[in-house]
Design brief:
There is one protein chain. It contains 18 helices and 9 strands. The protein is mainly alpha-helical. It has 2 domains: about 190 residues, Orthogonal Bundle (Fumarase C, Chain B, domain 1), CATH 1.10.275; about 280 residues, Fumarase C, Chain A, domain 2 (Up-down Bundle), CATH 1.20.200. A 3-stranded antiparallel sheet has the order 4-6-7. A two-stranded parallel ribbon has the order 1-2. The protein is elongated. The two termini are about 20 Å apart. The C terminus is likely disordered.
Length: about 500
């Protein structure tokens, strides 16, 4: 079981909850903090103090006083009116992540909710009841209001959920699991939706997928090096130490490790003096992507354990402060950076594909065709990869540089972080397909050279990939191969022993 306390949630724990479906609970100490802040909210209501979101309306309505007899209606109206999400729903794993992260944020004890709200969030996680949450409709400031309102609907028995493979009314799923809808009281509706958990959940899942793909890209690139009889000298440690970027040094080391016993690599001057940049600069480009991943991971780890609603309650209610922790700018920047970094991982992969299939750039059969001319081989696979990297270039345009005022200009600067996170995930999905195409082409080239000459590490990688995409002995519907290898990359475990001193191994 993973125990939440609002302070120390890690990627490894999130990974276990999302993909291994480990149960979740909370620590007794964190619950004490929750109870203390709840008492403060109840006193504010009883004393009829004017405090934003507790005894006032929301946004532009912050100057409208709400009497204590209407606080429950206020919270119910808030959830219903703000459930304006549109478009396709987030995948279930994203809904699950939002439940987990929102519960963890509330456990910090600054939000003033009753323990039952947190308990019900975790009940949904543990029962695998996942709210249906539309992907579009969040500006990424004032919290992810629309998406999180759809999450909150499930707690009050409204809206739809995913349950046992079907979309059903929330009340139906709650009843089958012996759970009851809760009635939201003062502050609780606002506490549930005033946060960054949609963009953060999307960011966490995107990061886990990106980290895994970045490791896999090094095996794929190493196999391409063998297929092109690349020059191993470019990966000599001294070159990379001379520049000084840790991530660059690590990528070069891993490539050397993958190719340590290869008989297909060459030395400078043996066949050519230098390789093209897409081969020679793998450590520099992939290393820069790892730098971005490290930045993204750091920001997400902070946000996973952050109090992001408004107002926040301190000193047992002596201090109740309105601020802007719901503003998603830190995650918006991180998601834009992630999209750019992964777009470049795909970009350099597509250039390696071109070098594998272009007969003017290698001594392999044109387009790796088994019968050039009569059979086209991998010709159009390169087209597909080029299309994907071009699409990524548009998706990588920063969402965070945009803003639009809302709530009658009270909320006059927003982050668009949720849009950025969705774009980053789509870039990663596209990048995985590009790397699947490189895998197919690199395997073909390496087998033409001779698998008996390959390094043990790349030979094992090829062996596993060949189970889903056979050797190209004649033209076939290659779309099926691309999707098969893409699915394999997404679901496969990293090769045995793959890890880094500086990067945690993850499953996604």
């Amino acid at each position: 079981m993973v125990l939440l306390n609002g302070q120390t949630l890690t990627f490894e724990e999130v990974n276990r909850v999302l993909f291994d479906e480990v149960k979740v609970g909370f620590s007794d100490e964190s619950l004490r903090k929750v109870e203390e802040s709840r008492k403060a909210v109840e006193k504010i209501v009883e004393d009829e103090r004017i405090v934003y979101g507790i005894t006032t309306g929301f946004g532009k309505f912050s100057d409208v006083y709400i009497g204590k007899e209407d606080v429950e209606t206020l919270q119910l109206n808030l959830i219903r009116s703000h459930a304006c999400g549109i478009g396709e729903p987030f995948p279930e794993v994203l809904s699950r992540a939002m439940l987990l992260l929102r519960a963890n944020a509330l456990l910090k004890g600054f939000s003033g909710v009753r323990p039952v709200v947190i308990e019900r969030l975790l009940d949904l996680v543990n029962a695998k009841i996942h709210p249906v949450i539309p992907q579009q409709g969040s500006l990424g400031a004032s919290g992810d209001l629309a998406p999180l309102s759809h999450l909150a609907l499930a707690l009050i028995g409204e809206g739809d959920v995913f349950y046992k493979g079907e979309k059903v009314p929330a009340l139906t799923a709650l009843t089958k699991e012996g759970l009851f809808p809760i009635t939201l009281t003062a502050k609780e509706g606002l506490a549930l939706i005033n946060g960054t958990q949609a963009m953060t959940a999307m960011g966490v899942v995107a990061y886990l997928e990106a980290e895994k793909l970045a490791y896999q890209s090094e095996y794929i690139a190493a196999m391409t090096i063998e297929g092109l009889r690349g020059i191993i000298d470019a990966f000599d440690e001294d070159i990379h130490l001379a520049r000084g970027y840790r991530e660059q040094v690590e990528v070069a080391r891993r490539i050397r490790d993958h190719l340590a016993d290869s008989q297909l690599t060459t030395r400078q001057g043996e066949l050519r003096v230098q390789d093209a940049y897409s081969i020679r600069c793998i450590p520099q480009v992939h290393g820069a992507t790892w730098q971005a991943l490290n930045y993204v991971k750091e920001k997400l780890e902070i946000e996973m354990n952050a109090a992001t609603d408004n107002p926040l309650i301190f000193n047992n209610g002596e201090k109740v402060l309105s601020g802007g922790n719901f503003h998603g700018q830190p995650i918006a920047f991180a998601m834009d950076f992630l999209a750019i970094a992964m777009a470049e991982l795909a970009n350099i992969s597509e250039r390696r594909i071109e070098r594998l299939v272009n007969p003017q750039l290698n001594d392999l059969p044109p387009f790796l065709s088994p019968e050039p001319g009569l059979q086209s081989g991998a010709m159009i696979m390169q087209y597909a990869a080029a299309s994907l990297v071009s699409e990524n270039k548009t998706l990588a345009h920063p969402a965070s540089v945009d803003s639009i005022p809302s709530s009658a200009n009270q909320e006059d600067h927003v982050s668009m972080g949720t849009i950025g996170s969705r774009h980053a995930h789509q870039v990663i999905t596209n990048a995985r397909r590009v790397l699947a195409i490189e895998t197919i082409c690199a395997m073909q080239a390496a087998e033409i050279r001779g698998t008996d000459l390959m390094a043990q590490a790349t030979k094992q990688f090829l062996k596993e990939a060949r189970e889903v995409a056979p050797f190209i002995a004649k033209d076939r519907i290659f779309s099926n191969d691309i999707e098969a290898v893409t699915s394999w990359l997404k679901g496969a475990s990293l090769p045995a022993g793959q890890s880094s001193k500086d990067h945690s191994r993850t499953k996604a």
